[in-house]
Task: structure prediction
Amino acid sequence: MRFAALAMLAALAPAALAQTDDAVIIEATRFPEDSRRLPVSVTVLDEAAIARSAARTLPELLAEQAGVTMSDLFGNNAASTSIDLRGFGATGTQNTLILLDGRRVTDIDLSGVQWAAIPLASIERIEILRGTGAVLYGDGATAGVVNIVTRS
Result:
């Protein structure tokens, strides 16, 4: 009898300790999907991660992530900063697509993004999609896509 009672308690113990993680929904693939089910490299920075960062500007925050390189072109005010995903070097800005709320910010004339116009305080989350998953976005997304989602 004691063995049966102990067996039932042992069977219930893992269920009592089991915890579920909140699902992270990614919009970078154009269809809402759970980030754990994607076959591509995705990084999501939520408001808490942005608040924990010591970065002063959006390019500095992005440069803290794996595979992202930042280069200040003129000064350090983020007005003329290039972001390079996956090491494309001088052509990094041409191969990295920047989206703001799902719309292209990267100019066709390759002049670059005005990073100073996007304050960190206005950002809800940032989705960084590297490699093959960026093929959905076409031209200018060879290295990947950075989707910046602002607060509504």
In short: The CA atoms of residues 72 and 113 lie 12 Å apart. The first helix runs from residue 2 to 17. The chain has a mean pLDDT of 75. Residues 23-150 form a domain with the Ferric Hydroxamate Uptake Protein; Chain A, domain 1 fold (CATH 2.170.130.10).
